[in-house]
Amino acid sequence: MVFSSLIFLYAFLPLCLIFTHLASKTRTQNYVLLAFSLFFYAWGEPFWVILMIMTGVFIWLTGLAIDKHRAHKTKKKLYLTLAIIIALSSLAVFKYAGFFFQNINAVFGTNLSIPSFSLPIGISFYTFQTLTYVIDLYRGHVKVQKSVLNLLLYESLFPQLIAGPIVRYADIDDQINRRTISLDGIRTGIGRFLAGLAKKVLIANMAGEIVDLTLNSGHLAQLDGLEAIIGILAYTFQIYFDFSGYSDMAIGLGHMFGFNFKENFRHPYIARSVTDFWRRWHISLSTFFRDYVYIPLGGNRRGLPVQIRNMLIVWGLTGLWHGASWNFILWGLYYFLLLTVEKIGWLSALERLPKIVGHLYLALVVIFGWALFYFVDMSELGIFLGRLFVPRSGYFGVRGVIMLKNHGLFLILAAVASLPVLPRIRAWLRSLANRFSASDTLIGGLQAAFNIILLLLSTASLAASSFNPFLYFRF
Amino acid sequence: MRKNTKKKTGSIIVIASFIFILSVTGLLKLVWPEQRISEAEARTLATMPSISGESLRDGSFPLAVEAYFTDQFPLRNTLIRFSDSMRNMLRITIGDDVQIIQGNQDMGQGDSNVILDELPGDEPMGVGYTSPYVN
Question: Which residue has better confidence, A363 or A302?
């Protein structure tokens, strides 16, 4: 089940909200939330829900063992290693085994049968989440979780289960047992959820249609330059609004149930360097790799060569985390190169240049990066880059011009929406309300009306997503 | 104290309206008369699937329920028309002097015809895009 579906909005969510809030005790709420979360996951993964539960139970058991042997360094380390190996093994088998055997066959000319497991939804997210629990427990940063149900709730909590953000156990440890659900918190959560839903349904899905008409159209070789540019721009907006929309929905849902998740995006496209971009994009993943890989490897404390080696490992892993394919590794290494160049001097040079130079540089390298990310097939990437830089029919072919006329306005609006416009409008409205001493009842009424509009627009768009018109109807 | 009560009222309005709309629409779905066919799409609309061990195991049952829920959603046709007009607002149409013809259809409607294999921006409506970032 995904948040952007009618069945989630009009069946699952109201039932979950009503049943959870009917329970007065946090403990009972946790049971209700766990039941709904497991149902949510099993709806899309009726079989692999067992794997998720088993992973959670195993991590809980190793957590107990680590806690039991907390004075015995070797045993403690042994249990941590076991937990990491088992958790990463399931990720390796389901996500990377096919890729691994494919490459073995290609390099050594062997004919090993390639395992083809269906990838359990959200496995990369919940694996990393459970790792934060055992690692932080080993480090003594969190207390052991004695209730297996509470640990399963942390692992499977439906708002962040499928597409993150990667919520660290340390961040919600206290909230699992003691959390305050306030009217104000639920109100904030509703607004945030609907904003995320609109980002996903109204912007990302529409951008996705432009991507399908260009990059995924089956006539990649015939693209003119403008079409190629429009296609990759649309993908740039699709991936941002899709992913940040999901994160907004997760954070909003968290508020509705009394959980505070950290921000995962801070308007990344306004960055002026790649360094700044990665402080704003998928923050929960980049900080995970920083705290659990980069710093334990020595970070920047052991000289520049070791630091660069550590960065290479982190960015290779970041690429691989996104998918078992060479293009993702290439994408990760591309950012490793850019960050290394920035670290050895380009960043300080950028800071001295006019701001616009930084914005343009960031836009160009990020958009190019999304091309590496999008094309899993390297030959398609080659064709696309050819059409982008040396278009056969020039930059302004008929198709490109029509695409621009049809979708130019949408792309401009999407670009504006990716800037921090909404927070500024919200701040302006707040100051306006203060100046005129508007009552909160009035503000609440206006906010409710705005929420209903967003919900209506998103619902209409979702209802239309199943619309498959008979061809003659169009003529 | 008075301010807090007012603040509470604003939050109650936002929360109550949200829960009310979601719940009432969900309940309406239960009693809404089901449609068998969609004339505009020339297809049979999804009906409530029957449950079986196999369909539960292979995940086809939840998918069929979602299709049924979406196909039989109250006021679906009105919502589709609304969505269409919303999308058209975001689209600047090309000039009247340019006509686009699919494939090798006979032209003969002026000199400014353009032959394309597909019409950019004129394909069937969205197909429920999945997230590029799930997993």
Answer: A363
Of A69, A322, A359, A407, the catalytic one is A322
Q: For residues A75 and A68, what is the distance between their CA atoms, to the nearest angstrom?
A: 10
The DSSP letter of residue A45 is -
- Say whether A123 and B135 touch across the interface (CB within 8 A): yes
Per-residue pLDDT tens digits for B53-83: 888 888 889 989 999 998 899 988 888 888 8
Place of tokens 């198709």: A399
Question: Which residues, at least 6 apart from A315, have a Cβ–Cβ distance to it below 8 Å?
Answer: A332, A333, A335, A336, A339
Tell me what ipTM this predicted complex has.
Answer: 0.84
User: A 209-238 residues with CB below 8 A of B?
Assistant: 209-210, 212-213, 217, 219, 227, 238
For chain A, the 3-state helix, strand and coil shares in percent, each to the nearest 5, are 75, 0, 25
What are the structural domain ranges in chain B? 1-31, 35-116
Quote the crossing angle between the two packed helices A13-22 and B2-31, to the nearest 10°: 130
DSSP classification of residue A221 = G
Is A125 at the interface with chain B, CB within 8 A? yes
Q: Which of B19, B116, B122 has its CB closest to that of A17? A: B19
Cα separation of A347 and A352, whole Å?
9
Question: Residue B41, SS3?
Answer: coil
Determine contact, residues A14/B15, Cβ cutoff 8 Å.
no
Q: How far is B107 from chain A (nearest CA, A)?
A: 16
For A405-439, write each residue's pLDDT tens digit. Answer: 888 999 999 999 999 988 888 888 888 888 887 78
Strand partners, B44: B37
**Shortest CA distance to B117 belongs to which of A218, A385, A418, A440?**
A218
pTM, two decimals, is 0.86
CA dist., res. A443 & res. B73, Å (int): 31
The phi and psi torsions of A95 (rounded to 5 degrees) equal -100, -35
Amino acid, single-letter form, for residue A433: A
Single out the residue of A43, A6, A41, A36 nearest to residue A18, CA to CA: A36
Sketch the domain layout of chain A as residue ranges: 6-179, 186-417, 421-465
What is the H or E stretch that residue B114 is in?
Answer: strand B113-116
CA distance A139 to A76: 10
Chain A interface test: which of B83, B96, B100 (most A C-beta within 10 Å): B83
Residue B74's closest chain A neighbor by CA? Answer: A463
Nearest CA to CA, how far is B8 from chain A (Å)? 7
In this prediction, residue B108 carries a pLDDT of 40
Most B-contacting residue of A10, A48, A434 (CB-CB within 10 A), to test interface: A10
Cβ contact (<8 Å) for A473 and B83?
A: no
Q: DSSP letter for A92, please.
A: I
Q: What is the pLDDT of residues B81-90, one digit of tens each?
A: 888 888 777 6
Rounded-to-integer distance, Cα A87 and Cα A89, Å:
5
Amino acid at A189: G
Residues of chain A found within 8 Å of residue B52, distances taken between Cβ atoms: none
List alpha helices for A257-325, DSSP H: 274-277, 283-289, 304-322
Query: Pseudo-torsion of CA B117, B120, B125, B126, nearest 10°?
Result: 110
